[in-house]
Design a protein that fits this description.
By secondary structure, the chain is an alpha+beta fold. Helix content is 24%, strand content 49%. It is built from 3 helices and 15 strands.
Length: 209
């Protein structure tokens, strides 16, 4: 009889402990879910080693109700120690405060982030940036989150409105809506495609130095 009572008591204790563990685990999961909802990149840090390869990657940053940027990719590999993610076939969209979009595509993107959010993104291979009616091309591009800027550090071209410019380096101010070419700037005009609007806006939007 005593043995039976002891067994029943042990079962009750185990069941009670199980309930406590479940509640604690549930609370932790809810906290993590709220944390991830505030900072989507945090989701990468909680992945187990066996799940560091992600198909159909998608992340976005929302700040004070405004979507700042959005990133899609065919596949993502995350490296915890380096705090770096490698995205294949990235499609990056930046939304300025007026809701205008700058779209950037390439072969590969490397994301570098601090404890809380994306710090820098480096794109490589077949870079194309569509911005303010212009098409920019290069083999490398760097998005600097703090400066709200895209830098094309190698040879780059920009074309639009019958004007094509080339330079050794290009900088795009996403909020200032300015494109700046640096060093060895060359200009090519296509008179048939030129229009009055392009002539007026080219001087304000694109500059060489």
């Amino acid at each position: 009889m005593r043995k039976r009572n002891r067994l029943i008591l042990l079962l009750v204790i185990f069941i009670s402990l199980g309930g406590v563990v479940y509640k604690v685990a549930e609370s932790i999961l809810i906290m993590k879910a709220h944390e991830i909802s505030r900072d989507p990149l945090k989701a990468l840090e909680y992945l187990p080693e066996s799940a560091l390869n992600i198909r159909d990657f998608h992340r976005a940053k929302i700040e004070k109700g405004r979507k700042v940027w959005e990133l899609y990719g065919d596949e993502a590999n995350y490296f915890k120690e380096q705090k770096e993610a490698v995205i294949k076939r990235p499609r990056f969209y930046y939304y300025n405060k007026k809701g205008e979009i700058a779209e950037t595509t390439g072969d590969t993107a490397r994301l570098f982030f601090n404890e809380r959010e994306l710090e820098k993104m480096q794109l490589e291979g077949g870079i194309q940036v569509t911005y303010q009616g212009y098409l920019l091309k290069s083999e490398n591009a760097i998005y600097l989150a703090a400066e709200e800027k895209v830098v094309l550090p190698t040879r780059a071209t920009v074309a639009g409105g019958g004007v094509e410019l080339e330079g050794s380096r290009m900088e795009i101010e996403l909020e200032g809506k300015k494109i700046r070419l640096v060093n060895n700037v060359k200009t090519k005009l296509e008179p048939d495609k030129l229009d009055k609007k392009a002539k007026k806006t080219d001087a304000n939007r694109v500059s060489g130095g």
